[in-house]
Amino acid sequence: MTDSSASASSAAATATLLKDYDLSIDYYALIGVEPGADAAALRKGYRTMSLQLHPDKNRDNPNAANEFQAVKRAFDMLSNDALREAYDSYLKQQRAHEERIAQLGAAKRKMRDDLEERERAAMAKRAKPNQVAILNRAATIERLRHENNQLLRSWIQDLSHRSIVTSTLSSQRASAAIPADHRTVRVRWLTSRYPNMSDTYLQDRMQSAFGPVEHVLLKVGPELGTAVVQFARIASALDAVKASVSGHNMFVSTLESVTWAMGKEPPLEYLAAARDEGNAKADHVRFGQVSQCGGDIER
């Protein structure tokens, strides 16, 4: 079993056990103990908190009964070995997810620095006025196109390997996570139309139209801007690509193109998952002929 399959299986089992619990609540904090506390510490913490929050002692608090029941519910869960093991597993997954996000942020910054350094080197060569310099510039740009595409593809694949399965906990479905490269689109626009395009602006517009965006990597050239946009759900990516073809979204209709980052549409089983998410039509449009995104960053 692969690491991603094992993670998906573990997340699914955890989701099943904890389906009746709100995982945004810190159940250890409710009874005033740290994770890893033994049974005696749990009982002591429960007694202390239940005495403090008992409704008879808090008649002026209209939420006293609910707070008291929340402490009891936390103690009951943490006293159950199976539930506590599942909850501890969930907390461990969340910590790992936060660490991966931090690592990806550093990788993204390094990627942008590398791209900018390569562009500065190309611009220095463009300063030579003779014909030889012009030919060298063309060769340099062609090489940079290829290398930058490889860097972007490598970044997308790295995201796929590092992504942690979190969708299972919210949907309660034991399905494997969709790889990041199949939730990622490539966006192109004319810099004359959007001279001040930024990753924050692009993320806000795409997120408001199609759903949560996890990462945006932006590259602006003299005439054409390119960005890689990774959505949290494949259904969002599918909707963005479809909007580029149909013109139904005003913002997307002003862009040059929105296409699949891998150069072709995802496998059918992933598109079926998009329909299951409820954000794509069952009779999806084939985008293979218009997904010409495996090419260059600059034309």
UniProtKB/TrEMBL annotation:
Q: Which domain of life is it from?
A: Eukaryota
Query: Where in this chain does the record put each J domain?
Result: 26-91
The name under which this protein is listed is: J domain-containing protein
**In what residue span(s) does the RRM domain sit?**
183-257
Molecular function GO terms recorded:
RNA binding
The organism's taxonomic lineage, starting at the top: Eukaryota, Fungi, Fungi incertae sedis, Blastocladiomycota, Blastocladiomycetes
Task: From the Swiss-Prot or TrEMBL record, state where the protein is found.
Answer: Cytoplasm; Nucleus
Gene Ontology CC terms: cytoplasm; spliceosomal complex
Q: What Pfam families does this protein's entry cite?
A: DnaJ
One GO term (biological process)? spliceosomal complex disassembly
Keyword set, alphabetical order? Chaperone, Cytoplasm, Nucleus, RNA-binding
